Fold this sequence. Notes:
Blueprint: E1 4-6, E2 13-24, E3 27-38
Antiparallel strand pairs: 1-2, 2-3
Amino acid sequence: MAGTALVTAMNDNAVTLRGFGKRYGKTVAVDGVDLDIARGEIFGLIGRTAPANPA
Length: 55
């Protein structure tokens, strides 16, 4: 479950993410996420902050 983030020059994307995954031990938090963020686009990801994670 490896993630790959690429900055590409072949299209209008500033960020391309394919097959991203994240595990915490045996717990799968994210599996197989694909994401394209276009140049000039504003993107935000909002989620819950874990209590042990200083924000």
